[in-house]
């Protein structure tokens, strides 16, 4: 790669920076609003529990989705890392994602209730496989158009826009759940999610992507797996970061079950689901705006540590003698802020490692290992909740979180910030 081609690339990035920031913010306002209704630990766990009446089934379905996200990043990396432009791939994968959300909505609206669970599992698993592909491709696209030194602030503003809309949409969705019969009420919720994500896809189409001056040779999946092992062996700090991220994901096993526990609290109703979701989105939204500022000043490692401490406070509140009926809003406020910080840092700390040449492989490795733990977390949490108690599951989650923070603090030093 010549200095001339690198200078031309950086000049193009800078020239289109404001346009791409506006487009990405519009995506945050529209696209991430829809995805939050699907991926947030409120609506889907509640829907699955109403269909199955089993915490273990909820955990198993979330595990199946996470397993899809584990395998697909490596396939996505082998597909994308050698390409100088990745926007078309992002659009194709994004269209497939929207089709799955539409399928969820139509199944809930028109299929008999008995068929809803298998239909939802099929669409949900397909969606999560595509999410794994999208994570790598979208990560490469983001890295090309938003310089690292300004990315934390941008992510905070983007998530603030999407989270604010999502919080308001959550109240609308709760009114659907209150006023309409199950499961059609959830069909309308997923249809709203589809509408927002479809509009978000148009924003992705408007991104001005520069042609990357750094690409890798095309690799097979087996070669990608081999490079994954070598990368972790050669960069021990990256390996420890993957360990901290994995333990943190296991620590978040309690997240999808807070809403189920709230639903079993005497006096709880469908509006409580909307209130809890609103509190979760509001805290995550405000928190991410602040987390972005912290990341730009001192790095994503500090964001991870602070977010983990807030998540521990949420678990402590869930374990307190007070009932969820009285602490529910506070619990979901802490949950949104803590989980939001940990997840933002987990996904973005990878950009602070190494050079751009191996970025695609690093994203794939970190996403794959992280998603494996994300998959195992709700499966283990559901089994412990059904076989022992919610309180026992909360304690296990707290132990994993403390282990994660210990590894991050002692084994992953602060990274040097790169200019952009």
Written overview of the protein:
This protein is mainly alpha-helical and 420 residues long. The chain has one domain (3-209, 219-411): Up-down Bundle (Growth Hormone, Chain: A). Helix content is 82%, strand content 0%. It contains 16 helices and no strands. It has helices at residues 3-15, 17-39, 43-52, 55-80, 87-110, 113-145, 151-179, 184-205, 221-234, 236-251, 255-263, 270-298, 300-318, 324-348, 359-387, 390-411. It is globular, with a radius of gyration of 20 Å. It starts with a helix and ends in a 9-residue tail after the last helix. The model has no long low-confidence stretch (mean pLDDT 82).
Rg of Cα set: 20 Å
CATH class: Mainly Alpha
CATH topology: Growth Hormone, Chain: A
SSE order in H/E notation? Answer: HHHHHHHHHHHHHHHH
Largest sheet: none
So, CATH architecture? Answer: Up-down Bundle
Q: Which secondary-structure class do the elements indicate?
A: mainly alpha
Low-confidence stretches: none
Instruction: State the domain count.
Output: 1
The coarse silhouette is: globular
Helix content: over 70%
User: In angstroms, what separates the terminal alpha carbons?
Assistant: 19 Å
């Amino acid at each position: 790669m010549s200095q001339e081609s690198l200078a031309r690339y950086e000049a193009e990035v800078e020239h289109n920076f404001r346009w791409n920031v506006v487009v990405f913010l519009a995506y945050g306002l529209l696209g991430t609003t829809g995805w939050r209704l699907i991926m947030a630990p409120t609506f889907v766990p509640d829907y699955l529990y109403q269909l199955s009446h089993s915490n273990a089934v909820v955990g198993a379905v979330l595990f199946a989705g996470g397993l899809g996200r584990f395998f697909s990043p490596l396939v996505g990396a082998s597909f994308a890392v050698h390409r100088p432009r990745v926007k078309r791939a992002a659009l194709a994968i994004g269209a497939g994602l929207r089709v799955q959300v539409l399928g969820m909505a139509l199944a809930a609206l028109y299929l008999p209730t008995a068929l809803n669970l298998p239909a939802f599992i099929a669409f949900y698993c397909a969606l999560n496989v595509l999410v794994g592909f999208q994570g790598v491709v979208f990560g490469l696209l983001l890295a090309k158009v938003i310089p690292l030194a300004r990315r934390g602030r941008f992510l905070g503003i983007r998530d603030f826009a999407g989270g604010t809309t999502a919080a308001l949409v959550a109240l609308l969705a709760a009114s659907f759940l209150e006023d309409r019969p199950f499961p059609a009420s959830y069909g309308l919720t997923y249809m709203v999610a589809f509408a927002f994500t479809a509009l978000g896809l148009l924003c992705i189409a408007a991104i001005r992507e520069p042609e990357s001056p750094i690409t890798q040779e095309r690799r097979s999946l087996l070669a990608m797996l081999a490079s994954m092992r070598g990368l972790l062996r050669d960069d021990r700090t990256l390996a420890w970061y993957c360990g901290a991220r994995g333990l943190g994901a296991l620590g978040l096993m309690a997240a999808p079950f807070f809403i189920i526990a709230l639903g079993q609290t005497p006096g709880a109703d469908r509006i409580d689901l909307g209130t809890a979701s609103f509190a979760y989105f509001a805290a995550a939204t405000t928190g991410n705006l602040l987390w972005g500022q912290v990341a730009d000043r001192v790095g994503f490692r500090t964001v991870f540590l602070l977010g983990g401490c807030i998540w521990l406070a949420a678990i402590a509140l869930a374990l307190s003698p007070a009932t969820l009926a009285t602490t529910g809003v506070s619990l979901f406020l802490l949950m949104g802020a803590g989980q939001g910080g940990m997840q933002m840092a987990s996904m973005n700390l990878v950009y602070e490692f190494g050079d751009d040449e191996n970025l695609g492989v690093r994203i794939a490795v970190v996403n794959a290992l992280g998603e494996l733990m994300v998959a195992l977390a709700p499966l283990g949490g559901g089994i412990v909740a059904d076989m022992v108690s919610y309180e026992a599951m909360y304690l296990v989650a707290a132990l994993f979180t403390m282990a994660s923070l210990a590894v991050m603090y002692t084994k992953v030093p602060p990274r040097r910030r790169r200019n952009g």
